[in-house]
Amino acid sequence: MLERRVEAVEAALDEALRSLPPPAHRLSPEDPLVPGSGLTAGRAVELFEDQVRSRVLDVVARELKQQNLGYYTISSAGHEQNAVVGALLRPNDPCFLHYRSGGLMMARARQHPGCDPIMDTLLSLVASADDPIAQGRHKVWGNRALWVPPQTSTIASHVPKATGTAFAHARARRLGLPTPLPDDAIVCCSFGDASVNHASALAGINAARYSHRRGSPVPILFLCEDNGLGISVDTPRGWIRCMFGDLPHLRYIEADGEIDQIWDAVAGAVRVCRETRTPVFVRLPTVRLWGHAGSDVESGYRTLEQIRSDEQRDPLVRNARRLVTTGAGAPEDLLALVEGTRSRVRETAKEAASRPKLVTRADVMAPLAPCDEASARAEASGAPAAEARTALFGEDIPERVTTPARRTLAAHINAALRDELLRRPEMLVFGEDVGRKGGVYHVTAGLQQAFGSGRVFDTLLDETTILGVAQGAGLLGMLPVPEIQYLAYVHNALDQLRGEAASLSFFSSGQFTNPMVVRVAGLAYQKGFGGHFHNDNSVGALRDIPGLLLAAPSRGDDAARLLRGLLGVAKANGRVGCFLEPIALYHEKDLYEPGDGGWLFDYPPPGAALLPGEVRIYGQGDADLVIVSYANGLRLSLRAARRLEADHGVRARVLDLRWLSPLPFEAVRFYAEACGRVLIADECRATGGGIAEALLSDLIEHGYGGPAASVRAADSYVPLGPAAATVLLSEDDIVRGALDLAGGQPASPA
Ligand SMILES: Cc1ncc(C[n+]2csc(CCOP(=O)(O)OP(=O)(O)O)c2C)c(N)n1
Ligand SMILES: [Mg+2]
Q1: Is the pLDDT of residue 528 over 80?
Q2: Quick one: DSSP state of residue 718?
Q3: How far is CA 221 from CA 141, 187, 201, in A?
Q4: Residue 198 CA: which ligand 1 atom is closest?
């Protein structure tokens, strides 16, 4: 049935072109298609060609699938009027595209003589390693030269970063920072009519309006390709206009009618966006031909009459008629164009199908997590100029400060951020309450006063937007350091990290990157403030993200070094990193006894940095076991180690992992072998973080034969008040676990 629909639509176009009478008069290419329109006859014919290319690619995608040569059949058929947008934007206006924006892509490629969009699309359809954007990792619209970053299949997830890119471009201009784009560039973001209801889309559109309301330019053109359907569910008639047609801080334009009317409407929208730097929403009515995708049996939820009635609205037939009746083209020429495109695309498809595929795991994963250690170390170990530091810190150069002699973790992070902001003009710090208030825990206190509200700023209350801004800023060459106020709220916007930020390099073969260091305040043990959401002790969702770096300091001086390391790897290798700051240790001063000041440390001067894999070991060689831990658990382990020695004569070394993803397996193996017994003290909930599991299985798989065990938090949400201790990992748990392992006496019961 479906194939017959493809044939029927193809035949209807041919039939229309064969039956149209020749034009009464001919326009020259420079003539307006109709009097008063900005669309010339020549451009209109080019547009038609772009649309036919897109259409034929859709047909051939299905043929390739039937021959088991292609892997993707979601088509742009019926959406080809979006080519107008491709023609009216400049090739350096970044585009974040809907999967049906094929016409737009064809028209855009026309502006770049080096591009062969037919071959590029076919290579993507057959998942060839020669596909110039994803090398076969996904079928996407994407092209480095055309400023089209690849999009994932997650509908609407690209909207926050599109807004972020528009925002970041304006912010760079305000700060006088260079970007790869001209000053008057605008961003385009297309999506479907059902996708617009998604939280991510609403977040992105809201953020654009909000920023505009606050006086920040946000030059973004939202393009809603409205076919009235989301797979099988129809969008209520008039819904898009009703949702977006009359909103402050968003210009709304309908681009409907004949091709020249669409052209003039879109030209107006682009002009408003470019000149006024305001968000503009364009609704482009379209029709969906041939179901959602090749595998979708549309007749299961729509009648043949409905399907046929949509086919009557084929934009290609409408445009062909307009070209002929206006005199822009002769029917036989347009028919020849269609037929010529069909044979060209089919020939090219044969060639594309013979091109190589990615065959090795190494090739597939090459762009996932680039790590050039030398360049990362060089980046991480730079220092601001001495005079600049004197101007910033005055007498209080952090490593020379005598009173207070040493600093808490929060103060170390604050000082390290200052040093990095000082030497990196492209670095931005932003999030909820980070500016005027200086962060809920005062970690960013004073940064806005020192570096200005252009570089250190409060965002609206939406984690999705925060990470969208980070992606946009990273994409344009800045070094964003967004803050997520609590670990629990990362989950709110996890897709922006998991599906988008961390996957960009993979799906663009390393051609686009969005370096960033996401600061996250997290983990448990806060005294006097609590409940689960401020004491979330699971990092499983972050450790699960391919290519994401995750570091968690246990002490202040390491925090400064780790932060520098993450920034270095982000800057040099384009990586996405997460810096998990243990809230309960932010202001902790003591290690063993109240007032001992054992958890205050000297500030490591700029230049001292830690890269992935670098761990810290406490204690001397000759020990009965090694306790492996991190963050709060590390401090608990040091306290437990002192009790083990004093009360039981058991000598423990303590290893600080520092890096939770990737885990420093080799170091753990080394110290496990050296000590002969290993206890993992994992403060994450038992099955939530995967740290203890991963380390223990790695030891077994690598032939470690000695005793090994773990102590972990309970598999529970964290309750309020003192009851929290019932589910969290405790010092007693570590002592007991160590004694069990070392064959000693159990500690006194908890
Ligand atoms: C977050 C997410 N949920 C569900 C899907 C599955 N899905 C793919 S396309 C689609 C419908 C999208 O409709 P619309 O936005 O109108 O775009 P259209 O396909 O009609 O052009 C759905 C539900 C998805 N890709 N991503
Ligand atoms: Mg739709």
Answers
A1: no
A2: P
A3: 18, 6, 13
A4: 1
